[in-house]
Amino acid sequence: MSLHSKAPLRAASVKMCQAALTNLDQAWHFWTAKPEKAPYILYMTKPLALAALLLLQLHHLHCEELPKTPAFEVASITPCPPGTPPAPLGHAWTAQFTSPGGRFRASATTVKVLLEWAYSIQPSEHSGGPSWIADDCYDVVAKAEANATAEGKVTDDQMKLMLRTLLADRFKLLLHRQRKELSAYVISVGNTAPKLFPPKDDETSTVRFTAWAIPDQKTTAYRIIFTRYTLGQLCDLFARQMDSVVVNRTGLNGAYDFTLELTPDESQPNPADPALLITAMREQLGLTLKSQKTPVDIMVIDSAEKVAAGN
User: Fold this and answer.
1) What pLDDT shows up at residue 42?
2) 111 contacts: CB under 8 Å, gap ≥ 6
């Protein structure tokens, strides 16, 4: 099934409901008519009534008002000049597009990155689509309605739903899900208790890096301090550096405080080297990181259209 607006479904459902009500009304007239004026009515009454009631039961959910698809109150999309390089994702290799007041801003951003943020998927968790979605950059500015929630605050999860609607409406983005067996890195609990600590009440989700030169070597060591960070977020972080799907199979879905120290050497100068991460995860966090075949839900891009200037 393609992921797009439900407006056509709503219209079709209304028509089916109207037809069911018409049949029920006709059946009622058959039932209450006088036998001497219509001798066949007694034969037709119960079948028609039962058929109409059955039709109503089958489609009663479609007759209900479908929930409104979350959408931005206003949104502007401007194509960047050809050749504009995509904006960097930030120090933690993650995109941050939202700000207080229900505001959304993405500068020099590709549809590929917008898609990944909107659906909370990793770069290797989608496929297909035209090549320009990874090359052409857009400036996107949008704002949610002031009363989008009862509390007056808009969460990132709600903004992601609004961005999905925007991608479908403006870029005519059509998608479907498909499960595939892929090679992926799987994080699971090791033989010892995980070294993950509950965050403090006043902490926010952050990632901080400290780097220092290793004496007598041409490499740099890194200390990464994660605050109120989920293992799902860690998977996304690793996925962008390892160019592979990374899956959390620990069963630990909360947010934690933890620290990783990565010490490359001349044989492994890349701090995101899988062998380096595997060792650090096991020794410092009590978690295993293994490469294995595993079923993964993939988002397949069926089609998309470029947005012209002034939209």
Assistant:
1) 44
2) 132, 133, 134, 136, 138, 167, 171, 173, 304
Residues 6 or more apart in contact with residue 148 via CB below 8 angstroms: 70, 102, 154, 158
- How far apart are alpha carbons 281 and 270 in whole angstroms? 16
By the 8 A CB rule, do 127 and 84 touch?
no
Task: Note whether 260 and 207 are within 8 A (CB).
Answer: no
Strands (E), the chain: 74-79, 98-99, 103-110, 126-128, 137-143, 174-189, 206-213, 220-230, 245-248, 255-262, 287-303
Q: If you average pLDDT over residues 165-174, what whole number do you get?
A: 96
Three-state helix/strand/coil letters over 96-113: CCEECCCEEEEEEEEHHH
Encode pLDDT of 219-248 as tens digits.
Answer: 788 899 999 999 999 999 899 888 899 999
Tokens representing 243 are 């160019």
Query: What does the alpha-carbon distance between residue 172 and residue 4 come to, in Å, rounded to a whole number?
Result: 8
Q: What is the model's pTM?
A: 0.70
In the structure encoding, which two tokens stand for residue 119, read together? Answer: 């659906």
Give residue 264's pLDDT.
Answer: 84
Closest CA to 242 of 289, 179, 311, 202: 289
